[in-house]
Design goal:
Length: 542
Amino acid sequence: MEIPYIVTPRKDTGLFNSKIAIWLFLASEVMLFGGFFSAYIFLRLGADYPWPERTLPVLPGLINTFVLIASSVTVVFAWASLKLRQWGKFQAYMGFTVICSMVFMVLKGIEYNVKFHHQALRTKDFSIVEGHLAYELKDGVHHEHGHEPKEEDFALNHHGKKFEENVINFETTQVSFNTVRFHKDWVEEMIHHAKERNSTIKLASQLDLKTAPDKTVTFAAGTDLDIALLESIKKAHLAARAHNADLRTEELRRLWKEAKKANPEKDDRELSPGITVDATKLALMPEAPSISFTVQPPVTFHYKPRDIQESPAAGTLRDGTALVGKLLESPMGFHYVDAIDFRHLVMKAEEKGIDPAVAIANSWLMKENSEFRAIWEKQQKALGQLADALKEKGRVPTEKDKYRINWQEMAYYMDTDLADVAIKPGAYVMPGVSLNNKEQFLGPDYHIRHFPHLNVPREQVLFASKFAPAWNTYYAIYFTMTGLHGLHVIGGALVLAYYLFCGKKMYLSNPEWLANRVEIGGLFWHFVDLVWIFLFPILYLM
């Protein structure tokens, strides 16, 4: 049976089936993204912290806007070419549309990559520090200010990757693994790290485990740690645990039968408190829920803060591994600090009735670092000049002007003496460096810009994250909305690419049917473009 109205429109609506379907689908999409936009507005208006403003690079977003607009035009030309039965022009226009979608996703991928490599830190006094972390150096190697470490100076994990200086350093003398839950990658890292430092990790005491009532497996004290050893102990432990569970179950079943026989008038709830299994009367096999190893000489292991709960003499990893030893200093080391922000600190100070200038002067960043005090002094001079310039226009500096130093200003202050600090004549913005093409896309070029270094003691760290959804609500919404939009771009591009590369047969058999399908794909593509036209200003410009 032939399905009606696939090619020819219905007389009552003037629409063919797929066009009705796409309009219903787009209506649901409008409600989805409308909910996101509404939530963004309400969260921004009610935010209990300074909402990020103009933090995203405008140029890539602007280029992406024109890329999508151009692709929306060419998808219409592709549909028109099919209507005119011009297959060659259809291929050219649709090919351009697909290429535009690829360009959009490449630029979005670059933007995401930059965010996932940029570090943010909130100190205990609510100062914000932004930049890039340094990497851990090998034991005995020290970094001298002004001299870049060589590649061979960096400590590497067992995958050959460097450690960022955002780790908990724990000097370990003994480690106990959860027999069932140990994380293989962390075990391999311990073994690798110990070998690098000519240390050994050996079984602390002999283990005699039974895998059956008449079969014993012995693990000798002093056996070197490796994954195979842990797997063997795990296998023996699970066999003993399964055997013991069977014994307990059988004993419990026997006790229930006896209790029921002796007290037939009682129900289960009355019998339950008096039924307990006496494990001492059972022939249980020894289990090993944890295995202890000694580390000699002691070795300092590095763990991400989210992976360990530490105290001065002990630590526990997320997989249940227990460490014994000594917690060492574990500062966060910024190789480059390219922005500082006191807006949150000022907001908290004003809530307590404290003068913002006093609060900033008493912040850890200002009290402990003379370099940032000098930068802040230059910022205040430029701010005074900006206030005078804006006064002529009946305006005043914004909170961002007063309490945030972005990377352009940071680079300017690092290379400019206090006496020479000045905003450009006629300019109504804080001073900043001129940008090359690379910096307009990716931010500062750290090979030509000079930024300060900073070590933040662990006790001063309130919260730290990359510019990822965990950092704040703004970035959570940014990644959610742009990520969902990106999935729509990929989905739409795949459909249009299918029509481009696999539509020839359909075109030869029924060109009008293909034209209708391309029209439906084009409607979806216009919607994707429209969503971005809303996303770009509210995320990039406001």
